[in-house]
Structures are given as structure tokens and as C-alpha cells.
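Issue 218. Parser rejects a valid record. Input:
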Amino acid sequence: MKQNRVVFLDRDGVINEDNGYVYKIEDFIFKDGVFDSLKRLQDLGYKLIVVTNQSGIGRGYYSEEEFLKLTSFMKDEFKKNGIKIDKVYYCPHKPEDNCECRKPKNKMFKDAIKEFDIDPKLSWMIGDKPSDIEAAKRSGIENTVFIGKDKEGIAKFQLNGIYDIINIIKK
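Output the parser choked on:
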């Protein structure tokens, strides 16, 4: 029986401002309320896993090494605030590569569910694009939160920012 509850998070647009192909530390701006929100979710017993499409790698805009350096910086900043990011899964491919890991496909979720013994029914996805929500639903995660305007109405909840998440995820 799967035991762990997880909050899956998209990166750009959820954790940080999405200014297009963010890969430099100086361009990485954390979203308002992200530290408090994730700390509270962690305190409720959720593991925190990032699932992010990073086509800038495949397009040659930045290297995998640059992405990993920024990821290390991000995780360290969370750690300084008492938050553990359990893992960051990323897809380095371009959309036209038609890989299995790029959201809305769900290989990143399937890999996480297996690696961390996750119960999808007790887990959540917070994203800012329809592809985030689609990938979660394909993985059996029905508890979905859309940050921004969910024009298609595919997520269970819609919020203006991650700082409101604690009003929805309470246990």
C-alpha cells in the first residue's frame, strides 16, 4: 500500500516568476509567499517534489549544468527556510522531441510515484499551465490547483498565488 503524500509543484510560474527560460541565479525571483506556503505544507506531512519542463536545455538556450546549478541554489534557499525539496524531476527535451517526460505526458510523475511510494489519491499538483494539470490527472492525481486564470477549468481549484494554498490543503 502506497504511503506517502506529496505536493507536486511546477517550477516556473509557481515557485519563481516565469520570465521565460530562467536559468541564471540573478534572474530567479521567488514568488511571494512560496516559503511560508511550502513550509506549512511540509509541516502537514507532505513531501515536496518539483516537476518541470525545461525545453531551454533541448533548444540550446542553456546547458543542463546551468540548470542543475540553479536547481541547487533553489534547493539551498528552501533549506535555509527549513524546507526540504525531496526531488526535482525535469524534462530537458523540446516539445517536438515527443518524449514521454514532457508534461502533459506523465513519466516524471510515474517515476516519482514509484521512487517515493506515493499515494496519488492523497497527493496534490500545483501548476500554472493546463499541461501541469493534465499530467497530474494522467497519474491519478485529482487534487489539482491552478495558479492564475484557469480558462479551461481543468483544475479542481484556482488561486491567484501559492500563498492561498493553505486555505485549500489543510490536512
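Fixed in the parser; the record now loads. The beta strands are 6-9, 47-53, 87-91, 124-127, 143-147, 157-159.
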